[in-house]
Write a structure and sequence with these properties.
globular; alpha+beta; 304 residues
Length: 304
């Protein structure tokens, strides 16, 4: 039996829709795989689909098993640490851990890009379309940028002092939340908005490379996707203002939401105060939330 763990992640980071991701050490999924029987079975104590065609880990293992013509069946045991459906890359963490565990079970020696490709198939089931930002972050760790034609994952180590805080609201999310929140995004956008987003995306990457956390914070802006989703998180502006007053460098929606993430320089800012400010922001809208102060995480790996 092989067990792998994969971290939660935040996608988009403002301007980088479907391109940017960052692994977060807030929480982890643990997936064990063992050769068993002649088909794929799944067990978990958590509230996720156990039918392998509907579970991101099951879909990933099914693809790998078919591609490598592996005859024996497999039992997959999933322990969820990442809350599902809140924009912390829960479905991706299971997919990344499953790809890593299964690849190790059969010594497939896959590159990080290949593991990301397999993990991406899982996202099709939960989000309705393949997107690699969360799975790439969960597989590789750190800050990632994804090219899709052809698939290539570029991986950077974020600045040492970069500290995040995720506020996960206590609201129910629809079963196909990511599909719903992708459905509100405009298909066509004005060129001037594209230019604005590219400028923010470029300066965000520059901030990651040079360790300029203030530049990263200023670059967490998105004039394309956030305006279309803002109505889904009415507390966003409040949270942003309060968190920035508490010292955050910038605030954005985490992935497809409804979680919100603040970025700060942890060497000069008390991240717990930022978290309390975010709690107050949701509180102003009568919503409780859980606060996860975190740093960038390493990618998926096997554990004993
Ligand atoms: P997240 O931002 O957490 O990845 P998604 O909405 O994209 O949120 O995915 C969560 C949905 O995916 C859940 O509704 C759940 O039914 C489905 N799902 C399938 N397999 C898993 C899994 N192994 N872990 C979490 N969610 C899963």
């Amino acid at each position: 039996m092989i067990t792998a763990q994969a971290p939660s992640s935040t996608a988009n980071l403002g301007p980088g829709f479907d391109v940017f991701g960052m692994a977060l050490d807030a929480c982890f999924d643990t997936v064990s795989v063992a050769e068993e029987g002649s088909s794929i079975t799944i067990s978990s104590d958590d509230d996720i689909p156990l039918e392998y065609t509907k579970n991101t880990a099951g879909i990933v293992v099914d693809m790998m098993r078919t591609d490598f013509d592996i005859k024996p069946g497999v039992h997959i045991k999933i322990r969820k640490g990442v809350p599902a459906g809140y924009g912390m890359g829960s479905s991706a963490a299971s997919a990344a851990a499953a790809a890593t565990a299964y690849s190790n079970l059969y010594n497939l020696n896959l590159s990080l890009t290949e593991l990301t490709r397999y993990a991406g198939y899982g996202e099709q089931a939960s989000a309705g379309s393949i997107h690699y930002d969360n799975v790439a972050a969960s597989v590789c760790g750190g800050f990632v940028m994804v090219h899709t034609k052809p698939l290539r994952v570029i991986n950077l180590r974020p600045p040492e002092n970069l500290t995040m805080c995720v506020a996960v609201p206590d609201v129910s999310t629809p079963e196909k939340k990511t599909q719903v929140s992708r459905g509100v995004i405009p298909e066509m956008v004005p060129l001037c908005d594209v230019t604005t987003n590219i400028s923010f995306a470029s300066s965000l990457v520059a901030g990651m490379c040079t360790g300029d956390i203030s530049l990263i914070g200023d670059s967490l802006q998105d004039v394309i996707v956030e305006p279309a989703r803002r109505h889904m998180i009415p507390a966003l502006d409040d949270i942003r203002n309060l968190a920035v007053s508490a010292g955050a460098a910038g605030v954005t929606i985490s992935g497809a939401g409804p979680s919100v993430i603040a970025f700060a320089d942890g060497s000069i800012v008390d991240i717990d105060s930022v978290g309390e400010a975010m709690r107050e922001g949701f509180g102003n809208h009568d919503i409780n939330c859980k606060i996860f102060p975190c740093k960038s995480a390493k990618g998926a790996g096997t554990v004993q």
